[in-house]
Design goal:
Blueprint (H helix, E strand, L loop, with lengths): L1 E4 L10 E4 L9 E11 L1 H8 L17 E9 L11 E5 L9 E5 L3 E3 L6 H4 L3 H13 L7 E5 L4 H12 L3 E5 L5 H6 L3 E3 L5 H8 L5 E4 L5 H7 L7 E3 L3 H7 L6 H4 L2 H12 L7 E6 L3 H10 L5 E5 L1
Parallel strand pairs: 8-9, 8-11, 9-10, 11-12, 13-14
Antiparallel strand pairs: 1-2, 3-4, 3-6, 3-14, 4-5, 5-7
Helix pairs in contact: 3-4
């Protein structure tokens, strides 16, 4: 089978698509033929060696956590899924960017028929992270929450979950994504110089803040008067120590039950997962180049 691998830290050019053996499922495991696998900024940072202290790579390393596909075979005593089932899930083994992936049975849920492969295969990292971040800031109907990076993979889902919680949402994003944000009931604000003034102009009082970017947005939230216990960042871990804010992200939301809830919302038309672009597996370098360029709306997905 074909699989993405890299043998050393570096830029996108270290990524290769190589032939490796198809793994065999053991007890409690499921082999999935991958139909779609989203890519994420954290994977690019791991590949570049920027997260070596926290998540070191073992070479040669695979890539990817998100996955959606068809069950190819199951391990001994696995009864929750059968060959041919369409599933959404994740792997903790950095291995989903491949034609087949081995994962644990508890990391899978059935894919609703109404959810496309591209959406299903990009739901785990961004969706579970957004779910945890929205939960962390304890939104109630009538609250106002500001989301930095509101058109990104995590932010685009977080703004919708916040709206479903009954909150007024201010989304910081580039102007070319403002129409999409408005279509979701979000008040768009352009980031950059004097952004605090623009936020105050549309939301004199912010109750909560979700930071998906870093780059000083936690300090901005504090300056806006948001209580630290209602600020969540998935990008600025130094600010967690400095200001006492939360840092609840994917690890806090990662579960098949959360995936099932998000997939259900998507199937019901209550949650849109924007797909910025899809690439065949052989074009993995181009996919990551687009990701690292930034300013895309939603997710970038590999289609093996």
């Amino acid at each position: 089978m074909k699989a993405v691998r890299f043998a050393d830290y570096g830029g996108v050019d270290v990524l290769e698509v190589v032939e490796v053996p198809v793994p065999e499922p053991g007890p409690g495991q499921v082999l999935v033929q991958v139909k779609a696998a989203g890519i994420n900024p954290g994977e690019a940072k791991i590949r570049a060696g920027l997260l070596h202290a926290r998540w070191p790579a073992t070479f040669p390393s695979g890539e990817g956590s998100d996955l959606a596909g068809v069950v190819a075979s199951v391990g001994p005593a696995v009864t929750a899924f059968a060959d041919g089932d369409e599933v959404i899930g994740f792997t903790d083994s950095r291995a989903s960017q491949a034609e087949y992936v081995l994962t644990e049975v508890e990391h899978l849920t059935i894919k609703p028929a109404a959810v496309s492969w591209a959406v299903a295969g990009s739901l785990y990292v961004a969706g579970c992270t957004a779910y945890a971040a929205v939960r962390a800031v304890s939104l109630a109907p009538g609250d106002t929450v500001v989301v930095a990076g509101a058109a990104g993979g995590v932010g685009s889902i977080a703004v919708q979950l916040a709206r479903l919680a009954g909150a007024e949402v201010v989304g910081l994003a580039s102007e070319n994504h403002h129409d999409w944000l408005r279509s979701k009931g979000v008040i768009p604000v352009t980031y950059g110089d004097s952004v605090a003034d623009r936020i105050r102009a549309v939301a004199p009082k912010a109750d909560a803040f979700i930071d998906t970017v870093g780059a000083g947005y936690v300090r901005l939230a504090v300056d806006l008067g948001v209580s630290p216990d209602r600020i969540d960042t998935i990008a600025d871990f130094a600010a967690v120590q400095e200001y006492g804010v939360k840092a609840e992200g994917n690890a806090a939301g990662a579960s098949a039950s959360v995936l099932a809830e998000l997939a259900g919302l998507a199937a019901a038309g209550q949650l849109e997962v924007p797909i910025a672009a899809t690439f065949p597996l052989d074009q993995v370098r181009d996919a990551y180049r687009l990701l690292e360029h930034g300013h895309t709306l939603g997710k970038i997905v590999l289609i093996p």
